[in-house]
Design brief:
Oligomer: single chain
Helix content: 40-55%
Largest sheet: 5 strands, mixed
Number of helices: 9
Order of helices and strands: HHEHEHHEHHEHHE
Structural class: alpha/beta
Number of strands: 5
């Protein structure tokens, strides 16, 4: 999806998104989307190719390259209870922390709208950077404090598989993660990771710490290269029981 025209800087109200969403942010999300596809070598991990080829009903919330991270996905979630039971063959949530970690939607609601034998897939980054340097750590600590203040569940990555099992309606529960280096010298995916993740931190720091963007991105890049910083991206997927 391309971006045309000019989108003014705007904070979308009534969302859990933690920084300004404008044209540059949407472009950053486009880079991220291509990076994740390259990282996993597939758009999804659920075995649904045959289902999709047969014309499946799909619900996808918070896909990275579109502005639905802002108002639209919140509209979907706010009206989730109005969706009929067993409506979709594939439900994909691309922002675990925003959708489930914030508590604005419960996993049982996702399972409810899923058809028997349908697949649920949930993905996102963990909210941490490993081997972070001092400046990156300082921003991360502020970011995590903000998330805690908004009652985000920062450990949902550790508990989601259990939550899926506890629904009593999901089988074949699988989860895995991939490491994304933030050292730009480590290749194209790492370069994209630095652009998407560190640029988001720069945007966040500008909005919340009063920092200037000038040279700040390069400062963080130099720090992550020095410390070989990395993040993990997670995918969880499972099938709904027949009965």
């Amino acid at each position: 999806m391309g971006v045309s025209g000019s989108t003014p800087d705007k904070v979308y109200q009534n969302t859990q998104y933690l920084t300004i969403v404008n044209e540059k942010e949407i472009e950053r999300l486009q880079i991220e989307d291509h990076m994740l596809r390259a990282l996993w070598q597939t758009n999804f991990s659920s075995p649904i190719i045959e289902i999709l080829e047969n014309g499946a009903e799909v619900l996808e919330v918070a896909k990275g390259i579109t502005p639905i991270l802002c108002e639209a996905h919140m509209n979907i979630i706010s009206h989730f209870k109005t969706l009929s039971d067993s409506s979709f063959s594939f439900v994909r949530i691309s922002r675990l922390m925003i959708i489930l970690g914030s508590g604005i939607c419960d996993i049982n609601e996702l399972v409810r709208v899923l058809k028997p034998n349908g697949w649920l897939e949930i993905s996102d980054y963990e909210p941490f950077i490993h081997n972070s340097g001092p400046q990156t750590t300082r921003i991360l600590n502020k970011f995590l404090s903000n998330m805690k203040a908004r009652n985000f569940d920062l450990k949902i990555y550790e508990t989601l598989a259990s939550k899926m099992e506890n629904t009593g309606k999901l089988i074949k529960i699988q989860h895995s993660n991939r490491i994304i280096s933030l050292n730009r010298k480590a290749g194209l995916i790492a370069t994209s990771g630095a652009i998407t993740i560190l640029q988001w931190l720069v945007n966040y720091s500008v909005e919340n710490l009063g920092k200037s963007k000038k040279n700040y991105f390069e400062t963080l890049c130099a720090e992550t290269e020095l410390h070989n910083s990395y993040v993990r991206n997670y995918r969880f997927y499972a099938q709904k029981r027949q009965n």
